[in-house]
Amino acid sequence: MEISEIRRTVYVGTFIYSTSLTKLEVLENAAVIVGVDKGTILAIEKTVTEETVGLWEGEVGTKIVRAGEGQFFFPGFIDTHIHAPQYPNSGIFGSSTLLDWLDRYTFPLEASLSNPSKAHRVYARCVSRTLSHGTTTAAYYATRDVTSTNILASVCFAAGQRAFVGRCCMDCLSPDYYRDESPAQAIADTKACANYIDKLDPTHALVTPIITPRFAPSCSRELLAGLGAYMAESGLPCQTHISENKAEVAFVAELFPEYDSYASVYDAYGLLQPKTVLAHAIYLSDAEIALVKRRGAKVSHCPVSNTALTSGAAKVRRLLDEGIVVGLGTDVSGGYSPSILEAARQATMTSRFVALTDGEAAKLGVEEALYLATRGGAEVLGLEKKVGAFELGMEWDAILVGLTDVPEELGEVVGGGMGPVDVFGWESWLEKVAKWVYCGDDRNVLKVWVSGKIVHNKPEQ
Ligand SMILES: O=c1[nH]c(=O)c2nc[nH]c2[nH]1
Ligand SMILES: [Zn+2]
C-alpha cells in the first residue's frame, strides 16, 4: 500500500500513561486509533482481540503498528527547559557553580554559535539526540543571535520535534562579546525571531516562539519592561530562570533593591503570568511561592543541573502541594544529560535528600516523576489538551519502549542488545516501569512519534 493511501494507524499492544499525579494507567491488549491527517487519537479500544486486529489489518487505508512482547507505548517526554547551544558542553562543568560556570563555559560556547554552520551542526545533533531519548516536545533557549536562533527553529521543524524556541535576551552584566546592544535592539531581535517562526509554522502547530529574558541579572529594567509589554501584546509564552543559586538570589536583591524578592522583579514587569515557565525555583520564599501561585506561573524542575552545579534541591512536594504546576527540564548543559528519563530518575533521588530534612512526604515516586515528565510538562507549556497522555482528541506524541526479556533457558538473549533493562517475566507492569525509570536509557526507546509522524526509528538489532 502506498503511504499516501493510509488514512489511519492502529497502535496495538500495551499502553501506559498517567491519569493523575500518582496513578499510571496500564492498558494491555488495547488499541489506539490515530488519524493520519491530523495525527490525533480518534478512538481508544481498551481490550481488543486478535480477530478485531485481523479485521483492521484487512481494511484499505489502515496500518497496524504493534508493540511486541515486553514493549509498551508511553507518551512522549516533555523537556520544559533546555539550552540547545550548550549541548556540546554536556558533561563539562567541573566543580563550577552557576555564575562562574556561565562565564567560564557557557557564554564562550553560546557566542561561538553566531557562526551559522556551527549552529546548524550543534542544533541538528541536539535535536536528533533529544528525539532519540523520547523528547517529543522541548522548550529551547537558543543564543542571542537572530540567525542562529532561526536555525534552531528550522531544525526542530524539519526534524518534526514540537518546540518552543526563544532568542536569549541579555543586555546587562554579560561579557562585551556576548551582550545585546541595547534594550530596543534586544526587543527588535526577539520580534524578528518570532516573525521568522510565524512564517515557518504559521499556526505554531509544531514550533512556537517564546519570549526569553535570560534571567533578571542579565536584563535591564527597560528590557524587562519591553518584554513584558511584548508578552501582553503578542500572547506568546515566556521562559526564564529564577532562584537557582544563593549567590544569584543575593545578586538580584542587590541589583533590584526596590523589589522585595526575585519573583517580584518579574512580576513588576508583567512577566509572571500563566504562560511563564520559571526554571529551577529552588530558593523561593513563602511569599514568592504564594505570588507564583497567584499569577499562575509554572515551574520547570531541573534536578540534574541543580546537583551538577551544586545549586541545591528544589522542594517539589511543597510546590505541588501549593497547587503550582511543575514539569521537568534537562537544563542542558547545566544538566549533563539530554534525557528526561534521567531527569525523572534524579527528581526521585533529590527528593530523597529533601526528605532527610523535610520528612518522608517529600519523596517523589516513579509515578509522580513520570507525571511531571509528561502531563506536568504539557501543562507547564499550555499543551495539556494536546499531549502528555493517551486520550481522545490528543495528538499521538508517543514513544515505543522496549525492555529485554531474559529467556528461561540459559544462553544468549535472542535479538539482544535491546538495552540495559532485563526483565525476567515475573514483574508486574508497574515494576517493569520502575526498572525502566531507574535502569533505562535511550537504548530502550525504539520508536518516537510526534503528531502521528515517526521522528525517530531505532535501527533493528
Ligand atoms: O542553568 C542555567 N543555565 C543558564 O544558561 C543560565 N543563564 C542564567 N541562569 C542560568 N541557569
Ligand atoms: Zn537553564
TrEMBL record:
Q: What class of enzyme is it?
A: hydrolase
Q: Which residues fall in a coiled-coil region?
A: none
Q: How is the cofactor bound?
A: Binds 1 zinc ion per subunit.
Checking InterPro entries in the record gives:
Amidohydro-rel, Guanine_deaminase, Metal-dep_hydrolase_composite, Metal_Hydrolase, Metallo-dep_hydrolases
Enzyme Commission identifier(s):
3.5.4.3
Q: Which residues form the Amidohydrolase-related domain?
A: 74-455
* Pathway(s) this gene product operates in, as recorded in its UniProt entry: Purine metabolism; guanine degradation; xanthine from guanine: step 1/1
Keyword list (alphabetical) reads: Hydrolase, Metal-binding, Zinc
Q: Which reaction does it catalyse?
A: guanine + H2O + H(+) = xanthine + NH4(+)
**Stated role:** Catalyzes the hydrolytic deamination of guanine, producing xanthine and ammonia.
Under what name is this protein listed? Guanine deaminase
Species of origin: Discina gigas
